[in-house]
Give the backbone structure.
Amino acid sequence: MKRSVLFMLVGLCFSFGVKAQELLNSDSSAVSNHQVTIKGKKVPYTATVGTQPVWDKEGEEVAYLFYTYYERSDVENKSDRPLVVSFNGGPGSASIWMHIAYTGPVLLNIDEEGNPVQPYGYRGNSHSILDVADIVYVDPVNTGYSRITDKDADRSQFFGVNADVNYLAEWVRAFVTRQNRWASPKFLIGESYGTTRVSGLVNRLQNSQWMYFNGVVLVSPTDLGIDREGPVAAANYLPYYAATAWYHGVLDPSLQNKDLDEILPEVEDFTVNELIPAMVKGGFLTEERKKELASKMSEYSGLNEEVILAHNLAVPTGFFWKELLRDQGLIVGRLDSRYRGVDRQDAGSRYDYDPALSSWNHAFAPAFNHYMINELDFKTDINYFLFGPVHPWDRSGDQTGENLRSALAQNPYLHVMIQSGYFDGGTDYFNAKYSMWQMDPSGKLKDRLSWKGYRSGHMMYLRSEDLEKANEDIREFIKKAVPEAGTPAKY
């Protein structure tokens, strides 16, 4: 990846060798020029690292957000050039994950399956979507380098489902205005809790800022406030259990010798048409039927039938991660169940740590800091918060799934794509499908809702094969969601 650096506005904190400063300049930017090869073609681009204030209702600055903005530099007309606004989740997580491992122009050094390697570093991302869209990665308040500037500011205006959406809508409006991108087709992408964020944000931007979007990409979505209590909540994890058991080779040969694409439709059908209706009966389900179901669940999940019966068919995810490979002295990861780990002892009902998350932190933090210093020439003593202090987080009033449905209904241009990893136990793939099914009870919007599955976990893009596939899916989604010139937005 070629690089040339030209700083235009240096308002950021350059402080190596001096006492660490608490805050960056709250309104500043620095621009550098680069080039990356994507799908065999050279793509020149500018990278802007910057800060932009967050203002309260009285117009007073209370915080600033740090962002990294990539623009393809050989495009003259930005009015038909898509703009993607990218968020990660947590809440409390910085934008680092998708920034340097998924859609951006650089890729951290990891192996083909996503495991950390040394030496730490990065390389050009030949699968980046920068060839078809400009991208800005945004760190919400108290994540990354973003900070509260008013020490007396009310934290509740930032840290909650609806507060988060409200201040970010104003920030995005200001960013789009400053960058002169109102005419551009616009997209939001969020991962994990970021899907809650962008589902609420697209509706808020439409209805309070009058900014309309062409697409929303939900990567490993949360429940989006969509109800799934009781039997549904317990039963919906079985397809994920089956996928994980298959990956670790612990299923009966009659299933293990089949491909995942053959197994999962069978398990999903059993879950919807047999397990959920049976679990609705609770303690009044006959013992004979309960044993029949436990036997089938054991066949699909790799768990012992007696263990399943002991949990009244409702096996908790935490127990599953501990139990599946207990006889091998191993645990499996939550956010990506391909990863294995070891506990202090094999006994117990929950693992000591998530081996997937530990592996990711190992890979990302060194690479990102190295990238900021050496590629973007951004130097500061301030700590980049991969996970920042944002708690307590107000989760009340989460209607973001309904917010997204409302935005779809009001905007005929808007499309939604969901991306899930089959081995994600934190925001599992079948619950993502369930959310999509429940989001639009009328069925009138389903032609603009799509779901994609990948053979990896929460961050499906860490697996090399899925990095290529998932980026191509986004690339095609963007092309599909941008209408031909002059196409009216109407039903």
